[in-house]
Fold this sequence. Notes:
Elements: H1 18-21, H2 25-36, E1 46-50, H3 56-64, E2 69-74, H4 77-83, E3 92-96, E4 108-114, H5 127-132, E5 134-145, H6 151-160, H7 166-169, H8 182-191, E6 195-207, H9 212-219, H10 223-228, H11 231-248, E7 256-268, E8 285-289, H12 294-304, E9 308-310, H13 314-317, E10 322-326, E11 329-335, E12 347-350, H14 354-363, E13 369-371, E14 378-383, E15 389-394
Parallel strand pairs: 1-2, 1-4, 2-3, 4-5, 8-11, 12-15
Antiparallel strand pairs: 5-7, 6-7, 9-10, 10-11, 13-14, 14-15
Helix pairs in contact: 6-11
The structure holds S-adenosylmethionine.
S-adenosylmethionine (SAM) binds near residues 3, 56, 57, 114 and 220.
Amino acid sequence: MAPDGSDGARTHLTTWDPAQYGRFARERARPFEDLMSRVDLPWAGSVLDLGCGPGTLTARLAERWPGARVVGVDSSEAMLAEARGRAVPGRLELRHGDVRSFEPDGPVDVVVTNATLHWVPGHLELLGRFASFLAPGGVLALQVPGSFAEPIHVLLRQLAGSARWRPLIDGRTGPWPASHDPADYLAELQAAGLEASAWETTYVQVLGGPDAVLEWAKGTALRPVLGALAPSEADAFLAEYASALRTAYPPQPGGAVLPYRRVFAVGRRPMTGAARPVVSALDHAQLAMPAGREDDGRSFYVGVLGLVEAPKPAELAARGGCWFRGVGTELHLGVDPDFRPAAKAHVGLRVVGLDALAERLAEAGRPVRRDDGLAPTRRLFTEDPFGNRIELLEPAG
Ligand SMILES: C[S@@+](CC[C@H](N)C(=O)[O-])C[C@H]1O[C@@H](n2cnc3c(N)ncnc32)[C@H](O)[C@@H]1O
């Protein structure tokens, strides 16, 4: 799994096998999900996935930030061929590149690098450059395995270094993958000016199927060795390695138990001290309404759309109107004595359950005009009781 063709120090082009890598997709996705759960960023316009591999998890980034342009970068053509099947014009783009030299087109809100940097020798030194990609408020999130002292890796290195295999492998692969402790990543992110945290987790994985630990290694750690050996040699190597793994990880009723340590770090570029002012998110939108019709507003925004009424501050309450809140959304209805409905300007509200909402709107006598112009996002337009245009959107998936 060396960067294909891009590392002069490697004499053999190691290739990825996306299908083999995907065999334990659930176990491999879990640390990514745990990492991303620590990225507290409701909105992102630009997301970068360094070492995106088959793009499975890159696509999840695009789902999480539907307004973002997501760029996945990888040096393996085999992985990119798989990832390109997930490309969405204008939304999810895959690029061939080396994380050591890749430069984004502009400031990035989220830089993710998951299960990649252990393949990049000296990667601690890259973190300052990755941090420099971030817009103020942006987040760098990384995860690497920290399991290189575990039998799965120790046995592999021992076998590859044995009298039988060393002459066939030595000099034909790059350095073995390696990572650092959480404190090392923390220190690098802090030195780069980020507000950082770092931690580790050992996942006690139960892997099903015959020689499951070998199958796990075939997707990742074994790639360089398999790339260095001729097919018949590779079969003999695998047989020896499988036998050693069976002793270290004996099959158990539920499957082989493979404890796997992983190291995580997340850092945020502070908003303060930004070189220029930055608009960071939409706080609320205000629509106008005619005087004295707050109850009509409540029956639509609370009764039909399901928002919750938010109390107005006492000093503003006397002006009339009402405020409503949804998940991540706040709408203010302000009284305008010269009210005219907004027929073109509008708010776009993201919803879950667009079809059920369409039924409720129809029952309430509100117009429902479907529009496929943003497919695969589904959307419709309606009007509030005052004639203000409202857009409702439900992203695909
Ligand atoms: C274990 S995979 C992880 C893929 C993906 N991030 C995931 O979590 O599913 C590691 C990926 O890093 C890529 N990679 C390794 N070194 C790289 C480098 N120097 N530049 C770009 N990609 C690299 C490999 O080609 C491979 O696709």
